């Protein structure tokens, strides 16, 4: 029986272009990296807590290079890949046998998320661990309200749908990970303008890659967006929330 194709929510070509732009923007000395820094720190803390000492690791999506650097300092042999340079999570992975796979900030924009988790499990060695972190449900609540205000009576698709913790736990079970763990934490960041938030999103690879991104905001809509963003803040600063979901499981 033929396997039903996953829905096409995200545009792969736009996704690759976005990450390539992100890599260019990250070359700037003041590029924002607070999300990837948080994810890297969390992975290292989890490994320390579990007392898990992998010999080989695959790191996906860490444009800072910090996780690979830390793992290599511990004697781990590390392979680094990114969707921007041709790595496709939704197809069978061209390597296997890793003790650890750490995927940071990429799996929230794949169309076949279960398939990506299946391919990751197949790339693990027996006894290997997957740790996958990405933005989950509850992220960017202010931006969502701002876009609704900007669009008025004709709302358009502008922000990505996201996975919540319950769905994440079910995904791990469905894709046969042992001892699955799904949790989340939030990171609140203050911004003095909507423009600065948008710049940070672009620099961290979080702009719109929907297959149907909706029409561009006109001048009036953009003005409404800026007004709504300012009104959501206090003292000239608006706080936006990023919910970071982490899913982990073992290959037994």
Describe the structure in brief.
By secondary structure, the chain is of the alpha/beta class. The chain has helices at residues 12-25, 34-50, 66-73, 113-123, 141-151, 165-174, 194-203, 219-231; strands spanning 56-60, 77-81, 98-104, 124-135, 178-191, 238-250. It is built from eight helices and six strands.
Q: Would you kindly provide a written description of the structure presented here, covering whatever features stand out?
A:
- With 252 residues, the chain is α/β, with parallel strands linked by helices.
- It has eight helices and six strands, in the order H-H-E-H-E-E-H-E-H-H-E-H-H-E.
- A six-stranded mixed beta sheet has the order 2-1-3-4-6-5, sandwiched between helices.
- Helix 4 (113-123) links the parallel strand 3 and strand 4.
- The two termini are 28 Å apart.
Outline the fold blueprint.
Elements: H1 12-25, H2 34-50, E1 56-60, H3 66-73, E2 77-81, E3 98-104, H4 113-123, E4 124-135, H5 141-151, H6 165-174, E5 178-191, H7 194-203, H8 219-231, E6 238-250
Parallel strand pairs: 1-2, 1-3, 3-4
Antiparallel strand pairs: 4-6, 5-6
Structural class: alpha/beta
Strand count: 6
Radius of gyration over all CA atoms, rounded: 19 Å
**Total helical elements:** 8
Largest sheet: 6 strands, mixed
Spatial order of the strands in the main sheet? 2-1-3-4-6-5
Poorly predicted runs are none
| Helix content class | 25-40%
Gap between N and C termini: 28 Å
**Average pLDDT, all residues:** 96
Q: Per the principal axes of the C-alpha atoms, what is the gross shape?
A: globular
Q: Report the order of strands and helices.
A: HHEHEEHEHHEHHE
Strand proportion: 15-25%
